[in-house]
Specification:
By secondary structure, this protein is mainly alpha-helical. It contains three helices and four strands. The protein folds into two domains: about 50 residues; about 30 residues, no CATH class. The strands form two sheets. It has a two-stranded antiparallel ribbon with strand order 1-4. It is elongated.
């Protein structure tokens, strides 16, 4: 509101463009860790649920399900999705580098 009242429409346009430039420059720092972490099998795993009660073997003896080997469910991205994410990240970085270089050279 302050910008709109003080400067008017040109100030709002400049503020909007500036905010979008800042967001585009920050985007690679958000996308890379997101793709990297969601592609990691270590990060994107959870312990498989186990039955809450004891189970019985065929001979009638009770078996504790917690003594079984730990089983995990993996929710990590596959290679195709991870590759697509890295390609999108690369396009964003190249576009930002191009914008910064053209701005520094005064061509923009």
């Amino acid at each position: 509101m302050i910008v709109a009242v003080a400067v008017g429409r040109p100030g709002i346009n400049a503020m909007l463009i500036g905010s979008q430039v800042v967001l585009s420059l920050v985007l690679p720092f958000i996308v890379f860790p997101l793709v990297w972490l969601t592609s990691s099998r270590t990060v994107m795993r959870v312990r498989a649920p186990t039955p809450a009660q004891l189970t019985q073997k065929e001979d009638g003896a009770e078996e504790d399900p917690n003594t079984a080997e730990d089983m995990y469910l993996y929710f990590n991205n596959g290679r195709v999705i991870a590759g697509l994410g890295y390609i999108i990240w690369t396009v964003i970085v190249v576009a930002n580098a191009y914008a910064l270089i053209t701005l520094a050279l005064g061509d923009a």
